[in-house]
Amino acid sequence: MNAIEISYQGKTVRYNTPANWNELSKHQLLAWAKICLSKIDLNSAKKRAVQHVCGLRRGIVQRINLGQILQIADTIGFLGQKNMLNKWVIRSFWRGIRKYHGPADALANLTIAEYRMTEVYYQLFVQTGDKKHLLALVATLYRPKRKGVIKDDIRADLTENGVQIREKRFKKLPGHVVEAILLNYEGCRNSIISQYAAVFKPTIHGEAKNKINDLEDIIEALAGDKFGTFSETEQTNLNRFFRHLAHCIARAEEETSKLAS
Known about the structure:
- The chain has 261 residues and is mainly alpha-helical.
- The chain has two domains: 2-80, no CATH class; 92-246, no CATH class.
- It contains eleven helices and four strands.
- The protein has a two-stranded antiparallel ribbon with strand order 1-2.
- Helix 2 crosses helix 4 and helix 6 (131-141) packs across helix 7.
- The longest helix is centred in the last third of the chain and has 23 residues, at 238-260.
- It is globular, with a radius of gyration of 22 Å.
- The N and C termini lie far apart (51 Å).
């Protein structure tokens, strides 16, 4: 956390502000999501961030000058940099009488099949801007509590029918809640890509514009002795899957290097 001091009208007050993405609270992430959705100028956005993300009381914000506001806003400058929020912030929410639970930090309890689905919906939303795909992403991540024994995932099993039902139910979720979930997913996604850089390394020819990167072919290629059938491989934890894939890539590159020498 950043410790800041503010002097105004002969008074000095002290605040702690988040120093990185993972220090954001639920309230702060939701506040930032609201600001992201607002059509306001940069200085107004910084003023709102100082009040709602840094936590300054409105009376203080009104009494300090613009220079002080901009200086305080600099302490949360990470919000304008690459999103690396891999702590899952909005653990659950209610819609009517139903409670829906989100994934673990860093998406650590996702299977590779679930990650494949979230990626398809995310890429479709980024390419088209159609909120339907964003709601499908949220409906994939958030599910009711599972019945019976709970091991590493409190959420019910993922089904396409369940996603379709929840997508309709989530249409009335507040916009800033959906935006906050999107921000959280993007942060986890960026962390996964950074952690498994070899897996997500661009090809020499790059990727075709508007191409959806679907993991189905890779899942099928790795099905076999280690993970079992295609269906069994789909249920493999995403970290275990990507670790093995990274190992296979490294081994293939080593063999290619030996043949070339």
